[in-house]
Fold:
Amino acid sequence: MERVIEFALNHPYLVGSFFALLAAFIYTEMKRGGRSITPVQLTLLVNQKNAKVIDLRNTPEFRDGHITGSESVPFSQINEKTQEFVNAAKPIIFVCSTGQVSSMAGRNLQKAGLTEVYRLSGGISGWRQAGLPLVK
Structure:
């Protein structure tokens, strides 16, 4: 512990930069649309809180394989369904191909007032890598 303090005192710019980057990372993660969850957490939310899984991929990708019980709402149509999701008063989990698009959709729902918004980390790709099944 002594050496850590000595390092911090001898290298204030490095330590300051580290904490600035850490704060920027935390801020960026908080600005994303919803909390990132793993496939296991997705399953728990669906089973325990009756969460609704929304697949944001286009229809052909959805038909190639999707999570059981998920609803297909292409990202281009998400604004039309926002009020429906808010009125449902259920947790919403967004799923896309890699996890990038779900962040934007989650941000829109949070602005509309929904507090329980989640996004699947890694999207369907992460789901497949975990060895979990998809239905057609």
